[in-house]
Amino acid sequence: MNRAALPLALSALLLTSAALAASVADVKKKGVLVLGTDPTFQPFEYKDASGNIVGFEIDIARAVAADLGVKLQISAVGFGALMPQAVTSKRVDMAISAITITPERAKVVGFSAPYYRSAQVFIVKGGNPKKFAWPASVKGKIIGVQANTTGQYAGNDALKPKGAVLKVYDDFAAGLADVQSGRVDALIGDAPTVISLKKRLPGQFDQAGTALVAEDYGMVFTKGSDLAAAANKTLARLKSSGEYQKLLDKWIVQK
After folding, report:
1. Do 96 and 33 fall within a single domain?
2. Which SUPFAM superfamilies match (predicted)?
3. What is the C-alpha to C-alpha distance for residues 31 and 71, in angstroms, rounded to an integer?
């Protein structure tokens, strides 16, 4: 989702290790690629029933690590601490967490080539898609957004001027709970999230209206790191071999 963070304090609980390397040579030397991700965004990254962090983006990161000949070490980092602080401080070698590529962020961090195009959409309670319309009428509606995401930025730019009231959440799951309870009229999230929700929780959630904004996701590295080029090679290999499509079919394509 493009969940991009504004400057926030790093989480001492989740980020306790010393600064880590952020180049191909150093990653290979230590034998580990340290990935930072916020595992709350199914199907891109989330914790399964056993507590393992899995998802579409996690499989892409595993492929990058495999091509480098190293192990993947996953650090669960709240999104507010992940981008860009965890990356620029070199506490993680790489971040992947539905992070939208923007010119502003590219001034601070390095991005891989885009690997997924998404869209910010309105998530509503199941059975209620016709009760919420965008852009026809959002005046007086309470719209949930996750803090420091493009959903929040788009809400500020496009919805508040039309009279919508934004409710900001640190935790996306809390926003979904408020959609279910009716405390908010809609929650802004990524289109694949709606697909995943409808598969996992039939009848509980729907998409309403048209897309608010489109966005491209990229893997994130320290500015100038050659890890970005290595990640691009992996993306090219996955796409040419057909493995990328298999990952889409596994995690995102609705069946």
Report:
1. yes
2. Periplasmic binding protein-like II (SSF53850)
3. 6
Q: Are residues 97 and 111 in the same domain?
A: yes
Q: What is the total count of domains within the chain?
A: 2
Q: Quote the distance between the C-alpha of residue 252 and its chain's center.
A: 14
Do residues 107 and 122 share a domain? no
Q: 227-241 and 243-251 helices cross at what angle (nearest 10)? A: 90
- The answer to whether residues 37 and 148 belong to one domain is no
Q: Is residue 88 part of a domain?
A: yes
Q: First and final CA of the chain: distance in angstroms? A: 22
Angstrom CA distances, 102 to 3, 97, 117, 153, stand at: 11, 14, 13, 12
pLDDT of residue 210: 83
Q: State the residue range of the domain holding 189.
A: 118-215
The region that residue 31 occupies, defined by phi over 0 for left and psi between -120 and 50 for alpha, beta otherwise, is: left
What's the pTM value of the predicted model, to 2 decimals?
A: 0.77
Q: pLDDT (tens digit, 9 = 90+) per residue, 47-104? A: 999 999 999 999 999 999 999 999 999 999 988 788 888 999 999 999 999 999 989 8
Tell me if the bond preceding 7 is cis, omega within 30° of 0: no
CATH of the domain at 127: 3.40.190.10
User: pLDDT, tens digit, for every residue of 196-235?
Assistant: 888 888 999 998 888 888 889 999 999 999 999 999 999 9
150 and 232 share one domain:
no
